[in-house]
Amino acid sequence: MMKPTLKTIFATLAAAACWTLAQPGFAQEAPTPMRGADVAAVDQAPDAKQYLGGRPGGQEMVARTFDGQPPVIPHAMDNFDEITLEENQCLSCHDAANYVKKKAPKIGDSHFRDRDGKLLKAAAAARHNCTQCHVPQVDAPPLVGNDFKGVVASAKGKKK
Ligand code: HEC
Ligand code: HEC
To answer: How many CB atoms lie within 10 A of CB 140?
Structure first.
């Protein structure tokens, strides 16, 4: 029983080795680089794009494309100070105490609740880093093509 089995295995291995060696150009084709350039070539950074919009006050809101989407920022924000632990310039216009005077939309009602849904007096600390959810816009072609269509019916974008 043992002998024929071993013989069969050896025969199969020998056949496989012959077939592999017989392949022309095996393991000789250079891989095609996915980014188009040679491995050693330095990547060229694209030109920096300017964010759209002017100073707050003159822009139309950008329509939302699905329910629960954080609205995108329609105005410029290059000149704002960075959001830090102590400072948040966004709140100086969008917070409950300031929005009327600044003619700015008030931060969402959800921003005044903690993670258990309890109503807070001030905006929740979890919402402090506004730009983690709200992003400025750039007029640039998408990096990767896609055919996403927003849920237009739920778009809440309102004109000012
Ligand atoms: C000087 C006041 C001011 C400051 C500072 C400011 N905003 Fe605004 N924001 C506005 C006004 C006014 C609008 C209404 C659109 C317009 O007129 O430009 C607006 C619109 C928005 C909207 C659109 C809301 C919607 O329903 O579509 C978002 C989001 C937003 N701002 C986020 C921010 C964030 C985040 C910051 C901080 C990086 C910020 N804003 C700083 C005044 C301000
Ligand atoms: C964790 C994500 C997140 C953070 C952080 C956050 N937001 Fe929002 N924001 C949202 C979402 C989602 C909505 C839309 C639904 C809602 O109101 O909850 C929204 C809505 C808004 C609106 C429109 C409110 C309306 O009545 O339509 C404004 C203005 C806004 N946010 C400003 C801010 C500002 C300013 C900050 C920073 C102080 C901030 N948000 C932080 C997610 C976020």
So the answer is: 9
